[in-house]
Design brief:
The chain is built from nine helices and 14 strands. It has two domains: 140 residues, NAD(P)-binding Rossmann-like Domain (Rossmann fold), CATH 3.40.50; 161 residues, L-2-Hydroxyisocaproate Dehydrogenase, Chain A, domain 2 (Alpha-Beta Complex), CATH 3.90.110. Strand 2, helix 2 and strand 3 form a beta-alpha-beta unit. The strands form four sheets. A six-stranded parallel beta sheet has the order 3-2-1-4-5-6, with helices on both faces. It has a three-stranded antiparallel beta sheet with strand order 7-10-11, with helices on one face. A three-stranded antiparallel beta sheet has the order 12-13-14. It is α/β, with parallel strands linked by helices.
Length: 308
């Protein structure tokens, strides 16, 4: 029997994730949304593309969570998009209300699933999903650090005119302004980035990563980022579905790792069939650890506001 991934939210991120999961033939896809007609129309459009893409999976669009029953993975993209004038904090209460609703419905029909959260503010929404679902921490993850590392890799590859496949980057901490790029762990074909670019140029690229969402929204005028967040979520889903045991920088609920207890924050995670198989602890410098603690405190502040 084929695997099943349900995507909550049929907007740009959700429908893009559905497309890539189907194109990769990772699983059958259920696209669920509160707005009648949107998931049905997008699913029909995607289904008609699959013969051309030579994919044999099934795509279903629905407003009924019963169709999501027995999903292996549920990707949560539902929520209000971030606008140019909004901080992630502005989204907090509105999206918490949405997450509270959709998590309850998703886990009722897929109690053995793994949740991958994309909704923003990401780290706080992961913590909300963890608390509300009643799942163990291994089955509730967020995609933020995968996204941030991908953005940094793309900027470095463009700067140096090299293949993105040669670039490795590691970012920890909260998604957004408090993220912590570990530049000493950033390499191009094994060569430290500090040997290839001056520090001021590295700093500029890092700042562009922090500002990426705002930069994209300003270009679009309406709408928000979709392709990169969807790709990040799909990479996580693929690693889990294929039991790859791959280490990705994901948002996870920490239980003492890195000196942080009871908070969701981005760290290196080994993912496999069970979801989170291990939080990979690496030795941080004093400055890096202080930055991580500051980032975790910022996440905790948001979680306190919503009682999570």
């Amino acid at each position: 029997m084929r695997r099943k991934v349900s995507i909550v939210g049929a907007g740009q991120v959700g429908s893009t994730a559905a497309l890539w999961i189907a194109a990769k033939e990772l699983a059958d896809v259920v696209l669920v949304d509160a707005v009648e007609g949107i998931p049905q129309g997008k699913a029909l459009d995607l289904a008609q593309a699959l013969p051309i893409a030579k994919s044999g999976v099934q795509i279903t669009g629905t407003n009924d969570y019963t169709d999501t029953a027995n999903s292996d993975i549920v990707i949560l993209t539902a929520g209000l998009p971030r606008k140019a004038s909004m901080s992630r904090n502005d989204l907090l209460r509105a999206n918490f209300k949405i997450i509270s609703d959709v998590v309850g419905k998703a886990v009722a029909y897929s109690p053995e699933s793994i949740l991958i959260v994309v909704s923003t503010p990401l780290d706080a929404m992961v913590q909300a999903a963890y608390r509300l679902s009643g799942f163990n921490r291994e089955r509730v993850l967020g995609m933020a650090s995968v996204l941030d590392a991908g953005r940094l890799r793309s900027f470095i590859a463009a700067e140096l005119n090299v293949s993105v496949e040669d670039v490795s980057a590691l970012i920890i901490g909260g998604h957004g302004d408090t993220m912590i790029p570990l530049i000493r762990c950033t390499t191009v074909a094994g060569i430290p980035i500090t040997e290839l670019l001056p520090q001021e140029r590295i700093d500029s690229l890092v700042q562009r990563v922090r500002d990426s969402s705002v930069e994209i929204v300003k270009h679009l005028k309406t709408g928000s980022t979709c392709y990169a967040p969807a790709a990040a979520a799909v990479e996580m889903a693929e690693v889990i579905l294929k039991d790859k045991k791959k280490i990705l920088p994901c948002t996870a609920y920490l239980q003492g790792e890195y000196g942080i207890d009871g908070c969701c924050v981005g760290v290196p995670c080994k993912l496999g069939a069970a979801g989170l198989e291990k939080v990979q602890e690496i030795k941080l410098t004093g400055q890096e650890h202080a930055a991580l603690m500051k980032s975790a405190a910022a996440v905790k502040e948001l979680c306190d506001i919503i009682g999570m």
